[in-house]
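Trying the structure run again after the queue cleared.
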Amino acid sequence: MSPDMPRDLTGLLTPSSIAVVGASATPGKIGHALFSNVAAFPGPVYGVNPSRSQILGRPCVPTVDDLPEPVALAIIAVPPADALRSLAACGRKGIRNAVVITAGFKEQGGEGIERERELVRIASQYGMNVLGPNAFGLISPRAGLNATFAPRGAFAGAIAFISQSGALGSAVLDWAWQNEVGLSFFVSLGNKAVLTETDFLPALARDRETVVIAAYLEGIEDGPEFVRIAGEVTREKPVLVLKAGATEVGARAASSHTGALAGSDRAYGAAFRRGGVLRVRSVEELLEAAVALSEQPLPRGRRLGIVSNAGGPAILAADAAAEQGLAVPPLSPPTVRSLAERFPTASTANPVDILADASADGFRDAVDLVLSDPGVDMGLVLTAPHPILTFAELARILAASQRKHGKPAVASFLAGELGEEAEKTLRAAGIPAYFEPARAVRALAMLARYREIRDRPLPVRSPPAADRARVRVLLASGGPRLGVESLDLLAAYGIPIARGGLARSADEAAALAQDLGERVVLKVVAPEIVHKSDVGGVRIGVPAHEVRGAYREMVGLAPAVGVYVQELLPPGQEVIAGIVRDPTFGALVMFGLGGVFVEALGDVAFALAPLSAPEAEELVRGIRAFPLLAGARGRPPVHLAGLVAAVERISHLAAEFPEIAELDVNPILCYPDRVVAVDLRVTVSGAEGLPWGRGQP
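Done. Tokens:
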């Protein structure tokens, strides 16, 4: 991994000395709770308080200027105006790392926004790493640092947790303590005025003790940079993100199908897939996945073996596996024979049900046989309370078998208090345990997903041969909206288009029709008309001898440039491909079924532009209706290679011309031997003033 000029956060995350500005000797104040935690740090600690010479046995000085040394880290917890003065004093003192606990900045609006701008200016002036403001703080357990006002710290461990919410971060800290889950770092981002999630990813990737990076985020500051760095980091370590605010973008009017269907959540989903980020949908899933990824080996594939003494939970587990994309395959014949010999009355299929009277020895043999099967990549052991077998016994059996075979394995103990001792045994062995089978399966699925992310080949996104000069002319020659008359935009990128041309008179229309066949398609070219078919602006199968009359009728619908005369193509499978700009991540490419289906069903998939050929194929295959394109129920399959190539080229058109704000190619007609773009709608904006004008990730 080689991010461009990553910040050095060593002094922030593992400081050698600390000063707390706003340290208090009064219980009940934030400054006291904060300093009480920081005072346990093994290195030099100073309080900054004008009325105290020491607090909790640590020396105090009146101001930052009075510190005997430029400490590695300053923690600031004083009113906003004082916080800015203290930060500037830190800069003059040579302190290059600060955590600003103080609130009252941009989250309050008004003057708070100006205060935050001043904070950023100070940090820039002195080259400071500033966490916050409005931050809960940070914890570095290995360094013995708890720079938060949380009632408890954290055990040292392998999970780094980044949170944009201080309250959620505090809750996670308490959960981790209760469940004895260790953290390598805890970072509360606060307002992210200077340091953002993107700054911490490279630092955490370089940390040897950090195995998993987990984050709760409400937004991302620099989308393209986040995607780039995440793509590098996730080849070394898994990155889990719980993204809050899964809402549609409503602040910007969308004139295209693509724009209407693209929301912020879809943009984040596309960005996370591009960056290899594992997205979770709940705090529970975030924590469970982080624990599993930090403790378990990665599976070779998606094949799950299930051993149970309870048929019902095993069925639930198999259902959950199907939902998560895991296979529950038949076991190999040698494994089946061995199971049948050992358990003559049991079900030797997968899931393996060794029945309610199974002993500890029985479970040991069954788990060993299933995990040793070459067709099993991971294992799940399920059990309900039973007088013959204790959970503690089963925990020891599973731990030993998991160590022996080196495959990921988890347990589901369908019990409350009875399972607590067993869960401690498994925790010590690095094996997660869950009450609900679906949760156990979900954790295993996350392991399989990360293995695929880590091992996927690096994409090659090569710009295609194209007449870019022609595209520039076409984009500059029209107004803010272009239509079918600009199909040459696609042709310039090597995308097949239906034959046709723009007629500006009835005679021109008739002449074009003569060259295109006995029957043609007519489309009015009028920027004011958004949905031409709704007002009679599209006529299909018009006889050549009727084109003149049809032309005169259609240009009367609205102020029209003319009528586009197009060849009549045979029916084919209609699909849509489009482009829309997301203010955070840039160009998104959309694909789905075309025609009315895109509006009625909303079965579409999005990806960040540009795309490689494999990424374009993944996008095409990502819609639920893909079997229709592949030839389901006797349909002829469409020309997949041609369709993938068209989508790939559209993605490069989007990446190379940021002035294209929105674009719909709807429909693209797909046949067994070719694909043809039939209609186009483009919204053009000047790239200069747009939030996405800087280019693409």
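The mean pLDDT is 90. Worth checking whether this holds up in the mutant runs.
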